[in-house]
Amino acid sequence: MSFKDLQLNKPILRAIAEAGYNDPTLVQEKTIPLVLNKEDVITSAQTGTGKTAAFALPILQLLFDKQEAPKKGKKIKALIVSPTRELAIQIGENFKTYSTYTNLRSTVIFGGTSIEPQKDVLKKGVDIVIATPGRLLDLHKQDVLNLDYIEILVLDEADLMLDMGFIDDVKKIERLCPNEKQTLLFSATMPYKVEQLANTILNTPKRVEVSPTSSASKHISQVLYYVPKRNKIELCLHLLRNTIRGSILIFRRTKFGVDKLEKTLLKNGYKVESIHGDKSQTDRQNALKKFKNGYVNILIATDVAARGIDINSLDAVINFDLPNVPETYVHRIGRTGRAGNTGLSYSLCSADEKAYVKTIQQLINVQIPIEENHPYPLDPKAKPIVHKSKKPKSKHKKGRKSEASKKKKKRWY
Ligand code: AMP
Residues 61-73: pLDDT tens digits? Predict the structure, then answer.
C-alpha cells in the first residue's frame, strides 16, 4: 500500500515524501482510513511504529479539507494531549514537518518553561495544539485557550498518562471539549484502567492493534549479563571500552542512579548527557539535542524521561538496572532496532533482579541469551577474565576530555 492509496492530498504527500517516507507503516495503514472516516479509534502501538503520523496525517488532511479562515481568527480544532514534554515537542516537530505545504498552524505547550511566549502564540491563533495536561489546564483557566471548537482530541501514550497520575486532568480536558468530537486514544499497552478510560470517553471506537508490547522487535539482538550489584559500574565501563559502540541509551530506574552513573562516566572520559524528572526542561532539551546531533554519544535516562522519545539511529540500549515492570523492558529496547536497523540490547542483572528476568522472558516469550564471558561474573567461583584497561574508542574523540571535565565542574561542584 502507498500513501496515495490512503487518499492523502498533495501538500501532505509532498511533505512526507520529503521526510523520506516511502510507504505507510502498518499502524498508519490501519489507523489513517479510520480517522479519515471520522471514527473514534483506539490504537495500541508502541513508539517507533510510526504512530504519530498515524494520527497527525489524517488530522491534517481533515482540517485541510475544511479550512475556512486561512490566517486570522484561527480556532483550535485539534488537541493532542501528551504525558511528557519531550514527547509533546516531538509530536509538534512532526506536525510542523507534515504541514509544511499547508497553512495549518500548530503549537506545543508544556510546563516547566515560561508561559508568556505560549500565550502569545495562542493569541495569534493556531489550528492544532499539542500539550501536556497541567499547562493546558492552566492556560484554559487563564482564558487564553479555548477548547470549544475542538473537533479531534488525541490522547497519546494513554497508559503512561495514567501511570503518571494524569487521569483526572485527562477527564477534565475531555469534558472541556465539545461532546460532539472525534476521539483517538493511543497506548503502548492496554491495561484495565486504559480500557476503562476508553469506555468512558470514546464513542463506539474501532480498534487497531499493532505489534503488541509483548513482542520485542526481531531486529534487536538481546544479551544478558549476570553481575554482582557492586560490579555493575565496572562491567558497564568494560562493555563501553570493549564491546558497545555508537549512540547508546542507558536506562536506570532512579534519578539518583542516573546522576551517579553520569558522574562515573564523565570521570572516565566519556561524552555523556542525562535526562530525568528533576532536571529543568531546558537541561533536558539541551541534553536530548546534544545526543540527537551526535555531540555526545551516551544518554542516561529514567524510564519516564525517555519514554516516547524518538531517537534516530540508536545503536544500543543498556539496561543498567532491570525494570520491575516487564513491559518497560520492551519499551526500553524498542528504542533501538527501529525502521529496519539492527539494534543491540545489553542487560545487567544482579542477584536481586533475577525474578525480573523471569517475568520479562515470560512476556516476550524469548530466552535472552546469557553472556558468561566477562570479568565480573555473579558466580564467585567462576574465574574472572582480566582485560587490560583500554581507553574508550569513542567516535567522538575530539575534545573529549576537556569537555568532560568542563561538564564535571559545572554539575558537581
Ligand atoms: P513514531 O512511532 O511516531 O515515534 O515514529 C517513529 C519514527 O518513524 C519517526 O522517526 C518517524 O519520523 C518515522 N516514520 C513514521 N512513519 C514513517 C514511514 N511511513 N516511513 C518511514 N519512517 C516513518
Answer: 999 877 665 556 7
